[in-house]
Amino acid sequence: MAATVQREVPKTARQRPRPKVVEHLTPAERADRGKEARATAPRSAHGEWAPASDRFDVVELLEEQAASRVPELVPLRYGRMLVSPFTFYRGAAYPMAADLAGEPRTGLEVQLCGDAHLSNFGAFAAPDRRLIFSINDFDETLPGPFEWDVKRLVASFAVAGRDRGFDARERETINRTVARSYREAMRTYAAMPNMDLWYSRIDVEQIAAFAAQHGGKKQRKQFERNLAKAQSKDSMRAFGKLTTVIDGERRIISDPPLIVPIEDVATGVERAEIEKAVRDLIRSYRRTLSPDRRRLLERYRYVHAARKVVGVGSVGARAWIVLMLGRDDADPLFLQVKEAQASVLEPYLGKSTFAKHGQRVVEGQRLTQAASDILLGWIRVAGVDGVSRDFYMRQLWDGKGSAIVETMNPRTLNGYGQLCGHTLAKAHARSGDGIAIASYLGSGDSFDRALASFAETYADQNERDYAALKEAARSGRIAVETGL
Questions:
Q1: Span 341-394, pLDDT tens digits
Q2: What is the pLDDT of residues 194-233, one digit of tens each?
Q3: How many angstroms separate the CA atoms of 319 and 339, rounded?
């Protein structure tokens, strides 16, 4: 008999964690799990919310969040939040996460968007270049109880309805529509075969049908204009709008503080050093792409970069645009490089399993969207201050479009709420147990009524928080920059 050879197992292999055991329950067992969650978090309880007696100072919480952002841009963030209670809500995901943390939880987890307000839904181009509708912001994504996203979404419609001057009855109808749309769509997705669910998406024809059904003649024309604008938003249009020729070289136009060329940000650093740093960044990001997309990116060369202010809640987080050129000036590629800090949900739901927050954002987006940007990737890079930061990268303009809430009447906002509720359910069904969630929600309207009540109560709290930030600005506690 041959001698037995004892092979030394490498230490790294011994320490490698075992693969997670995936539990495969029957549909009936999954449905039972959903019904059991009602004991922990009754559906009617979702409508019962009141601020804690020792509730945090909202300004202090926002200042805590601002500490890691670009200092000179923080006043601009506050300026945008102070435009209205609605814009305040868009920037106040952190306070709402703190409020939801004390509520009973269903234990039915999904990949949360983390900031599922109505302005974080929109159209964009799928890899086949057709426009689809989905959630389009994942900066705060993290696994957590499904109801957190639904509450943030429905409350955003209550806040928007007040902003538009809708009365209580109109808002009640809209709020219940959003919750009902989520519940009914979840039942539909729960009944689908897994592959059908995975390929399911909401395309431009379905969006057009929603617009025709829920809008008047004026709203339909507005939708057609928005659609045409979204379809025309690509790197070529960004090239024409955002660049010019200076001394024979193509450069991104300076428009401080909204757009600041990289050489004006990295003052005192030689141009050659800047260009080397950006090229190193692109090479690092390239490694996170699949081989075919990596090959595509390699056909473009770096030309210029600039810091760019984006959004409301994101203002102050580091965001860049990078101009690259392919075969000639008629073949531009604009990339957006956006900082990914820790999710605002992490203090309450635990740290991400991903060491890099850029990867957290990318993987969360890939899990919940039916189709994602083909150039979506991530990097970690050390800044000129020596601090390592995480970023994710994607195309800057790729057929992106969003609803203009400011022009919506009650009927149109109600229809848009139906679309958003349905879309959120699809994202949650992809990443969570749709059968268990559908079973928890049931076929009645108990959950709908509770969420509609919660939305109005939380809209009251939002107005109080908005007033607190406004007072902080008036007293000089915070600096505010307006008009940008």
A1: 999 999 999 999 999 999 999 999 999 998 889 999 999 988 767 789 999 999
A2: 999 999 999 877 877 777 776 677 767 777 777 777 777 7
A3: 6
Is residue 273 assigned to a domain? yes
Residues 6+ apart with CB under 8 A from 224: none
pTM, full prediction: 0.92
CA distance 95 to 111: 20
Take residue 29 and report the two structure tokens written for it. Answer: 């067992």
What is the pLDDT confidence band of residue 19, given thresholds at 50, 70 and 90? low
- Count CA within 13 A, CB hemisphere, residue 444: 5
Greatest Cα pair distance, the chain, in angstroms, is 89
Task: Provide the 3-class DSSP secondary structure of residue 319.
Answer: strand
Residue type (1 letter), 98: A
The answer to whether residues 110 and 162 belong to one domain is yes
Query: How many other CB atoms sit within 10 Å of the CB of residue 158?
Result: 28
Residue that terminates a domain, selected from 395, 420, 441 = 395
What phi-psi label fits residue 60: left (phi over 0), alpha (psi between -120 and 50 degrees) or beta? alpha
User: How far is Cα 275 from Cα 56, in angstroms, rounded to an integer?
Assistant: 44
Residue type, 366: R
Q: Are residues 271 and 358 in the same domain?
A: yes
* Residue 66, domain extent: 29-47+56-117+124-230+409-473
